[in-house]
Design brief:
Strand content: 25-35%
Number of strands: 21
Number of helices: 20
Low-confidence stretches: 1-35
Radius of gyration: 28 Å
Structural class: alpha/beta
Mean pLDDT: 89
Strand order of the largest sheet: 3-2-1-4-5-7-6
Largest sheet: 7 strands, mixed
Length: 607
């Protein structure tokens, strides 16, 4: 089942609007009794009212046998959850109250419960059914605040799957008393072994992360077999009541077919063991020395301060925005009290992965406060931030299929020792003397700026497309116009020369050069061209370096592509720069990635 079909079952009411992200993209049915629901919420609401005359819960049922009704199975699930709670009096926070059924039961049993919901329609429904005095507020978990230690238990009843895991445990750590209970009953991914992004959190990652926040796992119940029949019930109900659904909700046959197909696919994920259902009961046992958190814009000053202390030069807010401002980039930090003492950043990058488009993440700004660097164990801040980032973002089922970076020798050795990284490549450096200033008559040069015409944009893209054909058996970052514009032309501090090399007597583009001049000489940061054009581009770089009085021309390239540069007669020397691969979370093996990256200085440099 795709995320467009929320696994919550929808209530028999016209006052509730399903909040699932993808459901909101569906069509509304203003002529139906469920006019406030969106597709497919309206389908589930109506079919449950037809099948069972009521729908009081939004969650999966747990079936004891094949004669159990869906409503009975849902009640069994709620009873299982409530049985894990400490006896009242007890202060409980319920995250996402749904229709308020569990919330109401908790109140009836004498619990002091506060519920939160990010959906204003949920709030209106509960206030109407339970009264305006019901202790439910319009908050997401992120925006909800209370005094530290305000609750004895925090409950997630099929709401955790939609919330960032780092936020779940950070908030629970702050809001719970010591020895407080965190109870999650939900769907999880049990394994990732193929390309694509899963909407479900990996169960083992959740358990590992809980431990890093000081939570002890008291109980793990695998409920997959009991929960899976819920999907069969949904499929039977939509088949049985298809005519009514089509007529009453003004749907078309294709919509219901897609809904059923999605449910069948999700059922297959249960059958294959990729998805499952579980109850996790944690207890807050201790306060961790270092607190993990995703960084946002409000943490920029702390990050910039740690950056300066680590690298002894400034990163400006504009440079931070250029690097991390995109929603494709992420940062994990470790805090000691109110001080950021470790940082692990990643910048999203479109790549070609053996000819197929994928997403990678470039690891950068790996920093640990000088006072904490001696702690290099699996409980130290370097390990905590690295392992958490890899689990959360890299591998099968994650936002990025692979990661890459350029760690220093010390970080690489530590990461390898802890099983976080493996070396899959190395950089090498070529150096050339400058050449005559006389032009090469068969070609001409054109300096590219950020305000180029669409014709130049098309030319850059054509150069990349021709290069990509030569890299079908490699892994390379996409070098199209969008990338060139952001990476080089819109850099907030540095100025690069982006040069188009064209044939003099035809419109044919030969390739793109990206150069930077500094006291070391003229550095070729990037090349965008068919590999056969590399000698020509290097010749032009050497001539331009001579024109500007540079001492030499040099570039860095992954060793596996060194032969394309060696034919130019340059001097080659080793540089102590490793290319790492993630070995901590499941993804493409390091053997698959070994000596496959095309990386140059421009992929590394952020100056």
């Amino acid at each position: 089942m795709t995320k467009s079909i929320n696994h919550h079952l929808i209530p028999d009411t016209q006052h509730y609007r399903q909040t699932d992200t993808f459901a909101a993209a569906g069509m509304s049915t203003p002529s139906s009794p469920f006019k406030d629901l969106t597709f497919p919420a309206n389908v589930y609401a109506h079919v449950l009212s037809l099948q069972e005359d009521k729908a009081t819960d939004l969650h999966y049922g747990l079936f004891e046998n094949d004669k159990t009704s869906l409503s009975t199975a849902q009640q069994f699930s709620t009873n299982l959850l409530m049985a894990r709670l400490p006896l009242p009096p007890c202060r409980i926070l319920q995250v996402d109250v749904g229709l308020g059924t569990t919330f109401s039961l908790l109140r009836q049993h004498g619990y002091d419960v506060h519920g939160i919901t990010a959906d204003i329609q949920q709030l209106k429904y509960i206030q109407k059914s339970l009264g305006p005095e019901a202790a439910v507020s319009h908050h997401s978990l992120e925006t909800f605040t209370a005094e530290p230690g305000s609750f004895d238990a925090v409950l997630f009843q099929e709401s955790a799957q939609y919330i960032e895991p780092l936020l779940i445990f950070k908030k629970a750590m702050d809001l719970l008393t010591l020895s407080g209970d965190l109870i999650i009953i939900d769907e999880f991914a049990l394994k990732y072994d193929s390309v694509g992004i899963s909407r479900l959190h990996l169960l083992q990652d959740i358990i590992e992360l809980a431990g890093r926040f000081g939570f002890e796992l008291l109980e793990h119940l695998d409920l997959s077999t009991m929960a899976a029949p819920t999907l069969d019930h949904l499929l039977r109900m939509t088949t049985t009541h298809r005519r009514s659904l089509l007529q009453d909700l003004a749907l078309n046959t294709e919509q219901l077919q897609q809904l059923d197909e999605s449910n069948r696919n999700h059922r297959n994920q249960y059958a294959s063991g990729h998805h499952g259902y579980a109850l996790l009961h944690f207890r807050k046992k201790s306060l961790p020395k270092w607190r993990l958190q995703l960084l946002g814009k409000n943490h920029i000053p702390a990050m910039l301060g740690l950056f300066k202390d680590t690298f002894h030069h400034d990163m400006t807010p504009a440079a931070w925005q250029w690097k991390y401002g995109s929603n494709l980039s992420h940062q994990v930090g470790a805090w000691l009290g109110d001080k950021l003492i470790a940082h692990y950043g990643g910048v999203g990058r479109k790549i070609l992965f053996f000819g197929q488009p994928q997403m990678a993440v470039q690891i950068c700004d790996v920093m640990v406060d000088t006072n904490e660097r001696g702690i290099l164990t699996r409980r130290g801040p370097f390990f905590l931030t690295t392992a958490t980032f890899l689990e959360r973002f890299i591998g099968y089922g994650k936002p990025y299929l692979v990661g890459f970076g350029f760690p220093n020798e010390r970080h690489m050795k530590i990461a390898e020792r802890h099983g976080l990284y493996a070396t899959v490549g190395r950089m090498t450096e070529f150096s050339w003397s400058t050449r005559s200033r006389f032009p090469l008559w068969g070609t001409r040069l054109h300096l590219i700026s950020h305000d180029q015409t669409s014709l130049t944009k098309a030319t850059v893209n054509q150069c990349w497309q021709r290069m990509a054909k030569d890299l079908q058996n490699a892994i390379a970052g996409v070098r199209d116009w969008e990338y060139v514009l952001h990476r080089y032309l819109n850099h907030p501090q540095q100025r690069y020369q982006v040069i188009l090399v064209k044939s003099r007597f035809s419109p044919r583009a030969r390739g793109i050069l990206v150069l930077r001049f500094d006291p070391e000489g003229c550095e070729i940061l990037d090349l965008i061209a068919p590999l056969a054009e590399i000698p020509l581009l290097i010749t032009h770089a050497r001539r331009l370096a001579g024109l500007q009085g540079a001492a030499r021309v040099f570039c860095r390239i992954t060793e596996n592509f060194a032969r394309h540069f060696a034919v130019t007669g340059g001097t080659q020397q080793s540089v102590n720069i490793h290319i790492p691969a993630n070995t901590w979370s499941d993804g493409p093996s390091s053997e698959t990635l070994k000596d496959r990256w095309w990386l140059m200085s421009g992929d590394k440099d952020f100056r």
